[in-house]
Write a structure and sequence with these properties.
The complex is a heterodimer of chains A (496) and B (394). Chain A is of the alpha/beta class and 496 residues long. Chain A contains 19 helices and twelve strands. Chain A folds into two domains: 280 residues, 7-stranded beta/alpha barrel; 90 residues. The two termini of chain A are 24 Å apart. Chain B is α/β, with parallel strands linked by helices and 394 residues long. Chain B is 39% helix and 16% strand. Chain B contains 13 helices and 13 strands. In chain B, the strands form two sheets. A seven-stranded parallel beta sheet of chain B has the order 3-2-1-4-5-6-7, sandwiched between helices. Chain B has a six-stranded parallel beta sheet with strand order 10-9-8-11-12-13, with helices on both faces. In chain B, α3 packs parallel to α5 and α7 crosses α11. Chain B is globular. The C terminus of chain B is likely disordered. Classes of the chains: A alpha/beta (496), B alpha/beta (394).
């Protein structure tokens, strides 16, 4: 038992403020938020009407509901021999908070923009069809193979909020995976935000830091590998990952940046010695994530032995299989055999001694970069273009994106955590995704994910929410008592 | 192939989609080598324009002398005794005057021609196709549908060999209301003549016109009062908005009265009937178009508005809405939702531009060629069957 509080302990407790709102902008000198008692401890915020959006978790009682530090176990001796090929699975887990039908003449109370019932329904369905059965299967596979089979996850902060609040059983199932020591958790922006595309990296860095702290608190692991929202990547984002001290960053292995080169190697960003860049092998990833049960696909049915054979004949240092976790049970229904496929894959892969499963940090540690990547224009793993057009191809999307970005100074000046939280929830990339009006195949996928009748209704709801947030934030800034000081608020406390 | 077609409106005497449909359909049929005899009432409002046949070289128009009271949609009340009598007279005379040797199929449009169609089928043994453009349920707007018309529609639905419905929405309606056999009902969408409604690409969406357009008959079916209720709601938030109500019909006095009682008369302009040739220009002068129908079997006017680049709001109970992505939809009674959609469109040039441009492209995909092709497929499905022995005329 620790007798002295280390900085690490304090940081773990501090990652959530008292009312449960993730503490990203922390500034104990903000006068309007709280009063300090003699011991200097921060007591309940003065603004009595502030209703927490995220009910507080009793951290003291449950050790933050999180895990003590868990050391990632290296794979078995003999599995890091040179000349073999790593098979690196990474699963993305995310659920946005969806905007409800907001009408212009019915101003929401506080920041009540969200369709709580729909979010809950979708979370429950995904838990039942995917998270719980897939987690259990992977836990079994890790135990059966004694950690030879190992995988990585990235869980968005918005998703973690929801399972902490509504599905502690799902949280526990991810924690069970963490406890094995054979599962790696990546860092991303807390709010699954597109702020990585803003010119000013401040917001981006703050959200990544908040997410990293949350992963440490909940899973006992400090992420060393970063994935940006939807694998959006360019040279500037690489620089941010470097500044934040990440060992590796993952993104899409598109020909746009590779040319003739193989995605099955490790690279580094142009002009930098780090972080290492791991690239998704999109053909082999999409074989599982999209084509697995497509009628008329000439490789159907895709069995584990066939796929393992493909892996075995794929040259390179690493085969990076990055996909949405909902592939297992939601996008690919159980009837397709997707769970059986996964269940048998480790055994089938074991027939080929040169194949071994690896975590992203292991891939980065074991392989030197073979070349550098110059990415001046952002890429992503979305749509056929694999760029940012999924979120920013039409004027409606651009308008909302620019408005939210432009609100940053006002929101920071207002100094209200609830406002900040609402502004950040509106940054979640899904909102723009639902406003897409592409034609043909890509739009079919957008429509599949969208809870709205049409992208136009999505835009109307989004615009009404932004209008309301803008009005409220202006109001807050204007009503601050004038104390003669017009200095900007102090810079947020570094979370590193 | 030769078709004996029984209709009752035709250019230049058009009142609704039925006449446009028959004109465009027969034009395309003629291009595909199908011969058409088209039976219709002789309209007294000719006023020296000559017989209808003079206008159309592509088909044989056979006009039947009819009572002036049969004029479609004319008069104060929907169906008065004179109209009923005129319909009966038309049908009897049509049967008597029927002369289409070599016809392979009978094709009738809407209930007014059903009695004659059924009788002619009985007499000639020809197979019968019945196109349902609208039902009494649609037209009545829920107010006292006329039982005797519903009976005729039901007899037509049961007695025809094949049914064409102008939408899946209408197909579901006649299956539900009249027990139509779904296997025999073919939804075939109407189209538009895109050349007549140019626009979309070049339209300037940044300049605000600020007017919201209702362009329809002023009847319970088209819900003009709901439009005005939505207008009132919009004006609470955007008092500078202007509304245009274009069209004529029995509800005009009621609409004007409502505008005054609601205190919105300064913001609503009633223009009266808009002639065909002025339509395209009319659309482009407005900001958006609303069709809040109680029940709209198809809604050609929606496609016309969209083709000119006008963002459009349509009721969920409409045939055309089922096939459109780039419109906004609302229940005809949900005037708050309609109002909110109007406000959003007026406030955002981006939304107007996106909906307008995509909508124009989408609307132009509805072509009369497709309508004609699908209709021919329906004919081919029954023409090959052996004919019944024709009964001798009594």
């Amino acid at each position: 038992m620790k007798t002295t509080r280390t900085n690490e302990d304090k940081d773990m407790d501090d990652s959530r403020s008292e009312n449960g709102v993730p503490r990203i902008v922390e500034n104990s000198t903000q006068t309007d938020r709280s009063t300090s008692d003699k011991a200097g401890l921060v007591s309940k915020p003065a603004r009595a009407s502030m209703r927490p959006l995220v009910p507080s978790v009793d951290h003291a009682a449950k050790n933050g509901g999180g895990l003590p530090m868990v050391r990632l176990k290296r794979r078995k001796a003999g599995e890091s021999e040179p000349g073999g090929t790593d098979v690196c699975f990474y699963f993305q887990v995310h659920q946005p908070m969806r905007i409800r039908r907001l009408q212009a003449f019915r101003r929401p109370e506080r920041y009540d923009y969200w369709d709580a019932a729909k979010d809950r329904e979708i979370l429950d369905r995904a838990s039942r069809k995917c998270y719980l059965p897939a987690n259990r299967l992977i836990l079994d596979l890790i135990e059966q193979t004694e950690g030879s089979f190992r995988v990585a996850y990235s869980l968005s902060g918005v998703f973690l909020d929801q399972i902490e609040r509504h599905r502690p059983d799902v949280l526990e199932s991810f924690q069970a995976l963490a406890r094995t020591g054979h599962v790696e958790f990546l860092a991303e922006t807390y709010y699954h935000s597109l702020c990585g595309l803003w010119d000013d990296p401040t917001e981006h860095k703050e959200q990544i830091e908040a997410h990293r702290k949350t992963i440490r608190r909940l899973f006992g692991q400090t992420p060393t590998v970063f994935r940006n929202t939807e694998l959006i990547y360019d040279d500037r984002i690489a620089a941010t990952a470097r500044d934040l001290g990440f060992d590796a960053i993952i993104t899409e292995g598109t020909e746009k940046i590779l040319g003739d080169r193989s995605p099955n190697r490790v690279y580094r960003p142009v002009g930098m010695s780090g972080p290492k860049v791991l690239l998704k092998n999109y053909r082999l990833s999409d074989d599982i994530a999209f084509r697995f049960s497509t009628p008329g696909w000439n490789e159907a049915p895709l069995t584990a032995d066939k796929y393992a054979h493909w892996l075995s004949t794929t040259p390179g240092d690493t085969i990076n299989l990055f996909m949405d976790y909902e592939t297992f049970g939601e996008h690919q229904w159980p009837e397709t055999g997707i769970f059986e496929f996964l269940r048998h894959l480790p055994n089938e892969a074991a027939r080929y001694p040169h194949l071994r499963f690896a975590l992203p940090s292991e891939v980065a540690a074991d392989h030197g970069p073979v070349d550098e990547l110059h990415v001046p224009h952002a890429i992503s793993w979305a749509d056929t273009e694999r760029d940012v057009s999924a979120w920013l191809h039409n004027k409606m999307q651009h308008m909302c994106f620019e408005r939210l970005k432009a609100l940053a100074p006002t929101v920071r000046a207002a100094g209200d955590p609830e406002l900040m939280h609402a502004w950040r929830l509106l940054q979640t990339s899904d909102h723009l995704y639902y406003c897409s009006t592409k034609s043909l195949d890509d739009q079919d996928i957008h429509n599949y994910f969208s809870p709205y009748d049409s992208p136009y209704i999505a835009f109307i709801n989004y615009t009404n929410a932004i209008d309301d947030l803008e009005a409220k934030s202006r109001g807050l800034v204007e009503e601050r008592p004038s104390d003669g000081s017009h200095d900007p608020p102090p810079a947020p406390m570094s979370m590193a | 192939m030769k078709v004996a077609m029984l209709g009752w409106e035709f250019p230049p005497f058009i009142s609704g989609g039925l006449g446009i449909h028959c004109y465009e359909l027969t034009r395309r049929l003629a291009e595909d080598g199908v011969e058409v005899d088209f039976y219709m009432p002789h309209m007294s409002s000719l006023q020296g324009q000559g017989r209808v046949a003079v206008h159309h070289g592509h088909l044989n128009v056979k006009e039947i002398e009819a009572d002036p009271a049969i004029e479609p949609y004319g008069g104060e009340s929907r169906y008065d005794a004179n109209f009923n009598a005129a319909v009966g007279l038309y049908n009897r005379r049509l049967v008597a005057a029927f002369d289409s040797p070599g016809a392979d199929v009978l094709h009738c449009h809407d209930w007014i021609t059903v009695p004659a169609a059924l009788e002619l089928k009985r007499r000639t043994g020809l197979p019968l196709v019945f196109t349902v453009h609208s039902t009494e349920y649609d037209r009545s707007g829920g107010f006292w549908p006329q039982g005797w018309i519903e009976d005729i529609e039901r007899r037509g639905v049961q007695g025809a060999d094949r049914l064409i419905a102008v939408s899946r929405y209408t197909k579901d309606l006649i299956v539900r209301l009249y027990g139509a056999d779904p296997e025999r009902v073919f939804p075939v969408h109407n189209g538009i003549d895109a050349d007549r409604f140019p626009g979309g690409d070049g339209r300037d969406y940044d300049t605000e016109r600020g007017t919201v357009l209702f362009l329809s008959r002023l009847t319970p079916q088209k819900c003009p009062l709901q439009f005005l209720q939505a207008a009132k709601r919009v004006l609470e938030v955007r008092p500078e908005t202007r509304f245009v109500v274009a069209g004529k019909g029995e509800m005009l006095p009621q609409c004007i009265d409502y505008a005054f009682r609601a205190g919105i008369e300064d913001n609503v302009r009633f223009t009266g009937f808009v002639p065909e040739d002025e339509l395209p220009g009319f659309y482009s002068d407005n900001e958006l178009y609303v069709l809040p129908s109680f029940s709209e079997p198809f809604g050609i006017s929606v496609l016309e508005a969209m083709a000119t680049g006008l963002p459009t709001i349509v009721s969920r109970t409409s045939g055309v809405g089922e096939a459109l992505q780039h419109v906004l939809k609302a229940e005809y009674w949900d005037t708050d939702e309609m109002a909110d959609q109007i406000i959003a469109l007026l406030a955002s040039p981006e939304l107007r531009a996106e909906m307008g441009r995509n909508g124009a492209r989408e609307a132009k995909r509805f072509t009369w060629s497709t309508t004609s092709r699908r209709t021919i497929e329906v004919y081919q499905g029954i023409v090959s069957r052996p004919r019944l022995q024709p009964m001798l005329l009594a």
